[in-house]
Amino acid sequence: YFGSVYQGSSIYQGNLSESFNFSLITEEHVKQSIHKLKPRKATGSDSVPGYILKGCSDVFLRPLSHLFNLSLKIDAFPDRLKESIITLIFKTGNVGEVQNYRPVSILNSLAKIFETILYNDIMESFGNLFAPEQRGFLPGENLNAVANWFKDNGMFLNEEKSGVLSFTRKLSFIDGHYHVNKRALVRKTTCRFLGVHLQASLKFGEHYTNITNKSCKILGFVIKNSEHFHIDTTIRLYNALVRPHLEYASVIWAS
Predict the structure, then answer these.
(1) C-alpha dihedral sign at 7, 13, 17, 23
(2) Predicted structure pTM score
(3) Quick one: pLDDT at residue 143?
(4) For the chain, what are the domain ranges?
(5) Under a CB-based contact definition with an 8 Å cutoff, are residues 199 and 213 in contact?
(6) For 126-138, what is each residue's pLDDT tens digit?
(7) 2 phi, psi to nearest 5 deg
């Protein structure tokens, strides 16, 4: 059955060594991995912020390199480093349907450092073994090739979650018809992309309304529950809960 659905491709025959061992992890490896951390990313279950690791990296180089090498020596990845905080992010559609949410995992900072080191070691040894058809999760690959691969292997877009949006300020434009699996895509006048509401008219009125309503609701909650707080605490709550919604992607819609 699968042979009739998927397009056959030649099996890539690479030269694979009969054995592989991770290289000794040095302090320089740890330093380079820490340097790649994004300090403003949310903290995982280990409660170790990235900016602490980056700002005090010299203090952590020796103990972390020792712990990582010990982990490789006993062939065990620490259970605590496997933990992550799962957050559900609403995409679109009915808020009561679970398929309209996507999970986001917030990993531990130490796990990110360790995994980056292992990833670099693996790619250095096996990076040349990936088949030419492999396009996903590899740096420098063309996303168009991914779309073509989906088509060649009988995998299609979800028509119910797809649509057509033409960006123009002209009152009349060519209303082309687009189909997926012989099903016409619905033409839309607005869409939400990475948290920003985009309109066909290249205006952001809907986005303004959305963030205003959301910010006012949160601001009301903050004011109601911080009545007896010190003013500095209230300002901190405002900056943490309200202001991010007002300033998110403002370089796009506030210009």
Answers:
(1) negative
(2) 0.50
(3) 46
(4) 17-131, 157-188, 191-255
(5) no
(6) 777 776 666 556 6
(7) -65, -30
